[in-house]
Amino acid sequence: MRVDMLDNTIICEGDDLQKSLNYIDENRQLPVEIEKIILNVIFKELGLKYDKSLSIKDNLDLLPKDLLTEIIWDINTMFKGNRTIDYRDNYLAYVMYYLPVNVFKIWKPLLDLHINSTLKRDARILDVGTGPGSVPLGIIEFYKKLATVYEEVDFSLEFVLVDAQNDFLRIANKIIQSVKMYLPSNLKVNLKETICTKVTAESDYNLDKFDYITMSNFLAIGEGNNSKYSYDIVSQFADKLEEDGSFIIIEPGDKEHCINLKRLRNKLVNNGKFNVYSPCVGIWEKKDNYECSCFNTVRLRWELPNIFTYFKKNGLKHSLRKDVPFNYTVFRKDGFIKYEPITNIQHFTKLSQLRENIGSVINIVAFIRTTIYRGDYIKLALCDGSSCYGGNIEGVWIDIPMDRFEGIGQDIKLIAGERIKILKVLVNKGGRNTFYLNLTEESKIRIEY
Ligand SMILES: C[S@@+](CC[C@H](N)C(=O)[O-])C[C@H]1O[C@@H](n2cnc3c(N)ncnc32)[C@H](O)[C@@H]1O
Q1: What's the CATH number of domain 345-448, 3.10.50.40, 1.10.10.10, 2.40.50.140, 3.30.450.20?
Q2: Which atom of ligand 1 approaches the CA of 198 most closely?
Q3: Of 23, 69, 85, 350, whose Cβ has the fewest other Cβ atoms within 10 Å?
Q4: Greatest CA separation found in the chain?
Q5: Is the pLDDT of residue 387 over 90?
Q6: Counting atoms of ligand 1 from 1, which one is nearest the CA of 197?
Q7: How would you class 128 by CB atoms within 10 Å of its CB: exposed for 0-12, middle for 13-18, buried for 19 or more?
C-alpha cells in the first residue's frame, strides 16, 4: 500500500485488497476495552463507581435493579411508533444499546472507498447528529485496523461533532478521549469541536470543508422534522464537502427508511447536488438520473457485545441479530463512482430482458441488492438498474451453494453492493416481476468487491 501524496488517498496495491476485505470479513466485535469505556461513562453519569478490577458482568450486577429495569424498558420501547424521540429521557439506554449496534455500519461505506483507493489517510470528518459518537467510534476502529496492518503509514482523523443534545456530546467526547488511549502510535485522533445546536434546513455554519460528512440515523422518522426536510438539510452541507470528499448517509434497514433514503438520493442526484459513489451505480452507463425506490437491506455480521447478552437475560426483548440491517449511500461531488460501467455489453443480457429469455442460459452482470446466508448456500437479490422492483419479493433471485465460491480467488462474505458476473445461468420465471436464476454445471461466478 502507498499514499498518493497529491490526493492524500491510500492506494491499494498487491494483496491490499484481500487484506482490507479481511477486516470487514472477520466477525466484527466491539473490543472489550470499548465495552468497558461505555460502562465506565454510564456509571459516571449515574454517580456510581465502575470497578476496573471486576468483569463486565460483575460491574453490571452492581447496577441498582430498578435502574437496570428502566434502562431495558427504554431500549425495548424507544423506537416504537412514529413519535419524535426525546433523548433527554433515555440517552443512557441509547448509549448502552444503540451505540454498539451502530458502530460498525460505517465500515461498509469506508470499505467501498478504500477498495477503490479513495480513502483519505488524513481525514477531517463532520458527523451530524452524532449522538454518543457511534460513527466517530466506527471510523476510529476502521482506521485502527488500517494503522495496525500498515505500520509504516501515519494516519490522522479530526472530528467535528454536531448534535442537539448536550448529554450525547458530553458522552461522545468522553468516549473518544478514552479510546485514544488504545490507539496504535501511527494513528492520531483529534476531537476538534463539538457543536450543540439543532440543525434545520436553514442552518448557517461557519465551518471549513471536510473529507467526510456523515449522518447516521439522523434523517430517521423519529428525528422530528429531519425526514420532512431531508433534501434541504443535506443540500446545505454540500459546500462544506471537499471536492473529492464523500458524504455518507446511513439509515435503518426497514422498508420505510430504505425507500425514504432512495427518494432523497433520487432528488439529490437528479437536481445535480451530488453523484452516487456507491452502492447503486449504473452497470451499463453512468447514472445521472435515478427513479427507483425499491426496498433492500444491507446486513453486516457482528459478534454480540457482553452487555447485550446480560440485558437479554434481564428482559431485553430485541432479537439480538447477528446481522445488523441498515441502508446507506455514499455521495460525492466529483463524479467519481465505485465501478466504471461495463462496456462489452454484447456478451450479457440485461435483467430487464429476462422475460424474453425464460428457459435460456445467459450471462449477467448485476449488483447484489441483498444477501441472505442460509447454511450451505447464499440467497442473493440482484439488480442492474435496468428494471425497478417493488415489495419484498419482486426482483431477480439466485441461490448459490457456498462451494461454488471456492476457487474464485476470494473467499469473502458478501454484504451488498458488490458487482457479480455470472456466466451461463438458467432463467426461470417466478411470480409477478420476479425471476429465479439457476446455476448450471458450466456457470462461472466472478465477484468485484
Ligand atoms: C438516532 S440518533 C443517531 C446517533 C448516531 N449518529 C447513531 O447512528 O447512533 C439521532 C441523533 O441526532 C440528533 N438530532 C436529531 N435531530 C437533530 C437536529 N435537527 N439537530 C441536531 N441534532 C439532531 C439526536 O439528538 C440524536 O443524537
Answers
A1: 2.40.50.140
A2: 20
A3: 69
A4: 69
A5: no
A6: 21
A7: buried
How many of the other CB atoms lie within 10 Å of CB of 117?
17
Report pLDDT for 186: 97
Ligand 1 in reach of 224 Cβ (< 6 A): yes
Q: CA angle at residue 292 from 287 to 297, to 5 degrees?
A: 105
CATH architecture of 2-332: 3-Layer(aba) Sandwich (3.40)
Nearest ligand 1 atom, CA 163: 22
Please report the beta strands in 304-386, taking only residues with DSSP state E, as ranges in sequence order: 323-332, 361-374, 377-383
- Note the pLDDT tens digit of each residue in 177-199: 999 999 999 999 999 999 999 99
Looking at ligand 1, which atom is closest to the CA of residue 200? 19
Mean pLDDT of the 333-357 span: 94
196 ligand 1 Cβ < 6 A: no
C-alpha 4 to ligand 1 mean position (Å) = 34
**H helices of 115-249, where?**
134-149, 166-179, 230-235
Q: Identify whether the C-beta of residue 226 lies closer than 8 Å to the C-beta of residue 140.
A: no
Q: Does 167 sit in the ligand 1 pocket, CB within 6 Å?
A: no
C-alpha cell at 70: 428502566
The letter for the amino acid at 37 is: I
Task: Please compute the mean of the pLDDT values over residues 286-310 and round it to a whole number.
Answer: 91
Atom of ligand 1 nearest to the CA of 135: 6
Instruction: Dig out the grid coordinates for 190 from the structure.
Output: 483529534
Model pLDDT for residues 118-167, shown as the tens digit of each residue: 999 999 999 999 999 999 999 999 999 899 888 999 999 999 999 999 99
Domain residue ranges in the chain: 2-332, 345-448
C-alpha 68, offset from chain centre: 30
Whether the CB of 129 sits within 6 Å of ligand 1: yes
130 CB near ligand 1 (under 6 Å): yes
Residues 347, 331 contacting (CB under 8 angstroms): no
Assigned C-alpha cell, 203? 442552518
Q: State if residue 199 touches ligand 1 by the CB under 6 angstroms criterion.
A: yes
Cis upstream peptide for 132 (omega within 30°): no
For the segment 302-343, what is each residue's pLDDT rounded down to a tens digit?
Answer: 889 999 999 999 999 988 888 899 999 999 999 999 999 998
Fold agreement (2-332, 345-448): no
* Cα R_g (the chain), whole angstroms: 22
* Residue 354: closest CA among 397, 414, 325: 397
pLDDT single digits (tens) 77-115: 988 877 888 888 889 999 999 999 999 999 999 999 998
Question: Ligand 1 centre and the CA of 218: distance in Å?
Answer: 5
